[in-house]
Amino acid sequence: MHVNGNSFNRIEAHPSLFALLVCLATAVILVFGLPKNHHAPCKYSGASHALDIDHAFVCAALQIDRNAEISSHLQSLYDWMYYSTWVDWLLKSHLPNSVYTSRKNIFSGLTDRSVYRCGLFFPIIHPNTLTCRINTDEQKQSVVLLGNSHSDSIKNVFADIALQHGFNTYLFAVNDPMTREILPPEAIIQETLRRHAKWIFIHYKVDTLNPNKLDRLAELAAKHQIRLSLIMPVPVYEHGNYYYKSIPATLYYGRNSHITEQDYLKRNQALIQQAKQLEARYPNFQTLPVVQTFCTPVCQISTADKRPYYFDDDHLTLTGSQLMVPVIRQAFEFSR
Predict the structure, then answer these.
(1) Which domains are delineated in the chain?
(2) pTM of the model
């Protein structure tokens, strides 16, 4: 059965209609019990040790009422539940534990993320506030983290490191600042000054940062003596069908990354060249490469035990964001 954790199709998504069927079947057994001619599949002692908790629960449900009278149209449903429980248990008993561990780790990537930006209700509760503070304990100095959803993916690890160096982290509440007509560079600088910050970190997905606006932001930042640190984009895997538009799905089907350091440098060539020009023009501008932490030389998509670095094809999981630790830490340590 094809399962796609990134799909919205209810047949192949996870959880799917198949999972709903199991839940409904369990509910039917709880209400009506088992037919007379069935014996519960977990009648031996110590079944809970042989089965996982979820299977032990199904077995308990199957034993609630062996003598219940049921209608004939439910008979096939009971048969399916009875035998599928045993088949599932037999498969789980005889396959290596590493198989289930890796599957569990792969699917954990789908939920391995933090809350959305400042929180889903922040723009509603604070409609006139452009940024929120990520760290809880207020510090004397502040930095601003600017970017689209890719900056949101690294905000927790970034805020932790900033806090260790005595900085608050302010993140823009909107998901696409400085794109289209949303928060132009002038508004970014104004909000930075309002937060009494003198340092902006920039992190966008490749090809989404407008070069003209980056130039304008660098010009304004130099005028107001604000430091700019450009965290280069992370490798992305959205092109082609090889990656199923989901790194967890890619890992599930046993595929590996085939994007290399050279592929990354070619994809980001325009931004790399612009960053070099800005560094030469403005002493307050700094570029923070990430390729050396992701690509050695093949760009990695998971840990050795299959914990995904991405929850889709381009956004880092909390696990993946840990790869940014040396990059961010180096920036703060060199600022002393």
Answers:
(1) 17-94 (no CATH), 122-334 (3.40.50.1110)
(2) 0.73
